[in-house]
């Protein structure tokens, strides 16, 4: 009897995965159809559906691009995935998901139905030219940035639908919408939320009204619009809300284990009068040879384990979002205003940074450790300023002698730290921030510069010192850190500034090496002169945006070699990450390895948090613009004193002196001459008269229009009050 030969086992194929498919495309070095992918991997027919799903997911993630006969690697086809940011002028920029790449310019004709905020694939059409971004064309919309759009209801159509327009002026189309709930009543001029459907033609889409927000003039409606425009979460999911509810109202004795008891030390919080969450408390003591500065920060990480529902929701939000009449916090109120808030006269868990300084305020030794503290007083900036800096008797009577002595010591140390920071070149433009005031009816009554005093500066100096100390604490242990970095200023913009200044002052020469100290010296040399406004504005525009990174590149604006965010874990997720890294460092060598994220994970976290910070800034700017335009609507026809703040080839922007508002004087409203823009001199010059306009000029303007739809204030020029300098000197 002949034995049957055993059949040889088939060589096993690699398990199907996105990584395996991407590896195949890289090895083949050409686009492939789905059939070719199955053939190359020696798969069976039953695997066809799984391959189809994997290919679709890779396209959705922007790794592959769908082409006529199959799929190709996005990177090999010069395609980049990113978020589209459309400008008011109609063109856009794609901000790549890979933070190492520069933004790609997209002409209006190449947007291909993509909206502001969409996640897209852009095909790069050419290499960047000197001083310009590479140009691209949108080839695919991976994900709409907004599933619901705030719209203004225009009118009711014959068939019962409603004609609407998106409230975002960057979305230039109309929507014919039905009501999701027929019982909801809307009226022309009101604001509603609308889910867009299919496109009808290039200028019109279908849609469904899902919610009525209310009257356009209502500030709360404007805030709801901005939150929707920027996808800012307004509700906590059930998982994170339930987790918050299970937390205790106060820490227990078990929570105090392994912590230093500092409840007897007179820590105080100093915040704004309306603040409700207090995440930092301070204390200063005199010691032989200098000072001892204690900074206690709420220990949020004790209550929010990594990967928990609360943690995942906080990460998605990235930070808290502040509006004139409301806040969307990073954590539910039970944590942000209760358990993690350093309220007076109750024990609270903290991470403490204890810094011993020399007589000049220079940190010589740092300790970081978990502790329990009890805030002895909830103070306000105004209260501290009046009692300590202005020595007002009525303000001092409300404080104990011991507290006054501690605060006076704190002021002494803060001024010394500030002097040290100034010596190393830290930049402080000290530009006023707007503050919106409301009357008893909730209407905007004024928009004025926010009042600041040295009590604000005192807390800022102590927080900067603590942030630097913690970054150094991790660096000297050779451990990972999520740094707060600020790149050097834009060299081309600085060249333009120095070129402009050197035309009127030959002693002003651009230094070979741009350092914060050199720029600080320039600002100081122009203080009180007719060029101060120009220097401050142009320097500010040359500054790049600060961001998060696992790689330490230093902080240019603060002239700091090592800097991280540590002092606000209630409202910034980045600080929570650094708290966990510090705790990992403190537990090192105890036998139980603490989880420390790798470089790639920290890079992904940094990119996400930098993106959410940009969202918060954009939302803050938008709501300020909306409130300002509404406030100015009944002032059309009035005359205002202003100063020219920015020059373009189609006009100039002005800042009003009576109210913190900015608008534009367009060249189309000026009929005395034809004007030419001189970009290297930041000027507009009349071709016939030689009349000039440039930064810092004082002018009188008339408000012609306050458009909520376009978010614009448009002015016409009434007269030139004064010139910052003679334009002939600039030629």
Structure explained in plain terms:
This protein has 731 residues and is of the alpha+beta class. It has six domains: 18-74, Arc Repressor Mutant, subunit A; 78-143, OB fold (Dihydrolipoamide Acetyltransferase, E2P) (Beta Barrel), CATH 2.40.50; 149-216, OB fold (Dihydrolipoamide Acetyltransferase, E2P) (Beta Barrel); 238-473, no CATH class; 491-543, no CATH class; 633-729, Nucleic acid-binding proteins (OB fold (Dihydrolipoamide Acetyltransferase, E2P)). The strands form ten sheets. It has a five-stranded mixed beta barrel with strand order 3-4-5-7-6. A five-stranded mixed β-barrel has the order 8-9-10-12-11. The chain has a five-stranded mixed beta sheet with strand order 13-20-19-16-15. α5 (238-246) packs across α6, α10 packs across α11 and α13 packs antiparallel against α14. It is globular, with a radius of gyration of 29 Å. The model is unreliable at 7-12 and 724-731 (pLDDT under 50). Residues 233-261 are annotated as: Disordered. Residues 637-718 form the S1 motif domain. This is Ribonuclease R. Keywords: Cytoplasm, Exonuclease, Hydrolase, Nuclease, RNA-binding. GO terms for molecular function: exoribonuclease II activity; RNA binding.
